[in-house]
Amino acid sequence: MKHATDIQRRNLLKLAGFTLTATLFPGVLQAMNSRIKSTASANFHPDVEIELQMEAIMMPIFDGPRTRIWKIYGEVIKGPKNSLVNLNDTYLGPSLRFQKGQKVRIYMKNNLHAESILHWHGLHVPSEMDGNPMYAINRGETYVYEFEILNRAGTYWYHAHTHSVTAKQVYSGLAGLLIVHDKEEQSLGLPKDQYDLPIVIQDRSFNRQNQLVYVNNMMQRMRGFLGDQIMINGQPHFVLQAATRPYRLRLLNGSNSRIYKLAWDDGIPMTVIGVDGGLLEKPEKYQYVMLAPAERIELWVDFSKKPVGTELTLRSLEFSAGGMGMMGGMGMMGGMGGRRRMGMGTMGGGMMSNSVIPNGSEFQVLKVRIDRKELGKETLPKKLTQITPLQISNTANRNDPRTIRLSMRHMSALLNGRSYKMNDIRPDEIIPVNTLQLMEFDNGFHGMNGMSMPHPMHLHGEQFQIIKRQVNSRHRSAYSTVSEGLMTNGWKDTVLVMPGEKVSILKPFNDFKGLFMYHCHNLEHEDMGMMRDLLIQ
Ligand code: C2O
Ligand code: CU
Ligand code: CU
């Protein structure tokens, strides 16, 4: 790995030296000069200083043998002690909690026998702080991140973003939550502290020795990894023990490729108060919510009318996941006939790479047990915040949308027919800084061949707004199994683009020059090359 990256860095030097000029690509040159930021800057005065260490360890997740994982441990060096909470008994990294406006310095030390780098998903930070794979560091090296929290309050997260091995690294544990608060949100009187709970949803497979199984054959890569056990907050048998009161639940789909269609089993609608980039203008009710990899939703859920002893579950319902979803799972893997131990299923022996529950099948996600009476006085605000709609008339390209065509064929997953290459900026990937851009993701909207899959498309940098979704007639009936639950309002950084669909977004590129990525957040697709850089200049 190290060598591949070094070669790419050298190519960057060549590219920068021979074919580009400094004025044309200042971001690239800057990146090249200071490949790794390994020292703190004297003129940056952090409010919070944190040290993170990546380590390969054995962790007791199940009874019996410990599980080998890649774990991030952290420590607050300066600033509020509650900026970081380490999670024991799981592979997840520490939960980070910041306040908007805080200046944050993070020392990230790699103690793994592999190169790695962390990306702050959803945060608007300078290019060198964004965890581009070109900044991956080796064992023994430290990357020093310094940035101000510019984002509004919301549920963000961080994860490894290492060239071609992101999926494996995230799967092994290199990910965690990053929650931002701000004054406006704190003045709303939403449930807080132990009533403001993260729910990280991931699927994993473990073998009889309690070891993580990651299959990386052709099928798994084209479709994306699907595990046979749901983990909540990194726990196999998680039960939310709740009181008879309102809660704020922050859901993150931290899975590599699994898409969830979430609904309460008591038929009560889901009350969504927030999405990727924070609170919605007002609460919205859905019969079900689609949550694709990397997407977040915040739910208001009120248990005050439930008798103590009530149990309810959040389920993932059936939907049509397109050619490689249900079909792929059913047809090629033997589908539902195999053994099934989704959800709270007991840990058992499973070398079951061929017992995968396909994307789009039904299973249990989260179990809630109302176990005590408590009075919560919070009420759901009618209005949560003001979201100013971005205007297409303010874009730099209103008549010339930047179209990103999503395609899959043979062993490749492509964006505009291209595969990821480090430092391979094409003219249509250069964007002037401080502009608003009209962009569209086209997933075979204009008639495409066989292999169509849903792609959760993500852009680094600032949050965007979704302005239009269109689906072609061929895919309309499959689309109708998900369309009522697609998250479209509010600030987003990841959007699920279904087969046959075209999604138009307005995306601001303010403040920072340099490289910012766009990619599919099906991590196997990303590693297969469904990722590119944008150069903001
Ligand atoms: Cu969550 Cu480029 O990633
Ligand atoms: Cu990101
Ligand atoms: Cu994809």
The level of helicity is 10-25%
Helical/strand content category? mainly beta
Work out the strand percent.
35-45%
**Distance from first to last alpha carbon:** 29 Å
- Total beta-strand segments: 30
Radius of gyration: 22 Å
Helix run count: 8
Strand order of the largest sheet: 11-10-13-18-15-16
Mean pLDDT: 89
Low-confidence stretches: 1-33, 325-355
**Ligand catalogue:** CU-O-CU linkage, copper (II) ion
Largest sheet: 6 strands, mixed
Shape: globular
Question: Which secondary structure elements does this structure contain, and how are they paired or packed?
Answer:
Blueprint: H1 2-19, H2 26-33, E1 48-59, E2 67-78, E3 84-85, E4 95-99, E5 103-110, E6 118-121, E7 142-148, E8 154-160, H3 166-172, E9 175-181, H4 183-186, E10 196-204, H5 218-223, E11 229-232, E12 239-243, E13 246-253, E14 260-264, E15 270-275, E16 278-286, E17 289-291, E18 296-302, E19 311-316, H6 326-333, E20 363-372, E21 402-409, E22 412-415, E23 430-431, E24 435-443, E25 455-459, E26 465-471, H7 476-479, E27 494-497, E28 501-509, E29 514-520, H8 523-528, E30 531-536
Parallel strand pairs: 1-5, 4-9, 10-13, 12-20, 21-24, 23-30
Antiparallel strand pairs: 1-2, 3-4, 5-7, 6-8, 8-9, 10-11, 13-18, 14-17, 14-19, 15-16, 15-18, 19-20, 21-22, 24-28, 25-27, 25-29, 26-28, 29-30
This protein binds CU-O-CU linkage (C2O) and copper (II) ion (CU) (2 copies).
The site of one copper (II) ion has 4 residues, from strand 6.
